[in-house]
Amino acid sequence: MLSAVTKCLLSNSVAGIRMMSHSSLSGKVAIVTASTDGIGLAAAQALGKRGAHVVVSSRRQANVDKAVELLRSEKIKVTGTTCNVGKSEDREKLVNMTLEECGGVDILVSNAAVNPFFGNILDSTEAVWDKILDVNVKAAFLLTKLVVPHMEKRGGGSVVFVSSVAGYQPFQALGPYSVSKTALLGLTRALAPELAQSNVRVNCVAPGIIKTRFSSALWASEDMVDEFKKQLSIKRLGEPEDIGGVIAFLCSDDASYITGETVTVTGGMNCRL
Ligand SMILES: NC(=O)c1ccc[n+]([C@@H]2O[C@H](COP(=O)([O-])OP(=O)(O)OC[C@H]3O[C@@H](n4cnc5c(N)ncnc54)[C@H](OP(=O)(O)O)[C@@H]3O)[C@@H](O)[C@H]2O)c1
Q: According to CATH, what is the number of the domain 25-265?
């Protein structure tokens, strides 16, 4: 089957070019938040390898410098700045710098999240909820609001939120974080119809357990990994690249008829409501 498809593409160069151009992001400018490590960095790499100019950011300058150096070594067009997405002045700085240095913006990947609380949900405080909702939900919306007028000037664009499998089925001891991730599923659906009028697509990815620093407490021991594997069809934990490619797909013209959707990328974990 695969060899037949390859043969067809080789003998039909127009189809080949069409396929390539639809996944290409050449000429696009992509802001990816929290992109100096883990899933955000993998998304920046996937977008950059498809030709986008990526704007990477996170809270710490040293992390930004390291990510910029890595992406440049991979021949990716990249600009970097610090941005704590929970601060309005930082969000504005990120968008203004993108406009000044890259001439516009076509793609927003809102990836940043925090989780300052483990425990019974009734023990969580107002300060915990404020922090989680500010960074994980409100910042995603407010950044979208900042970039959409500039996407409209370029004829459209694409927004991708990074939710979690926990948004479908709350993880034990991670109640407030899980609820914030459910809110992103709703935000995706609330924004998509309104922004479709401006040719801006809004989608979401819900990763399963991906091996990053953020999730390290979940895969700290072999026993825990074995326990998770029982819930998976693909018997390994995910890697950041497993998510980066899906994000790049959602931002590309290959996904031009997809909006308001959340794609679960979980290795087959049963997570649908
Ligand atoms: N890993 C998983 O299993 C998993 C599963 C489902 C969903 N997710 C989601 O995936 C996203 C990324 O997580 P990850 O696992 O890739 O994390 P990670 O590897 O630990 O990377 C976190 C990144 O976020 C930056 N960051 C942290 N707080 C920030 C803030 N307030 N503003 C801007 N940048 C910030 C960090 O850099 P600085 O320290 O320099 O700020 C770093 O670049 C999150 O939304 C998370 O909820 C992860």
A: 3.40.50.720
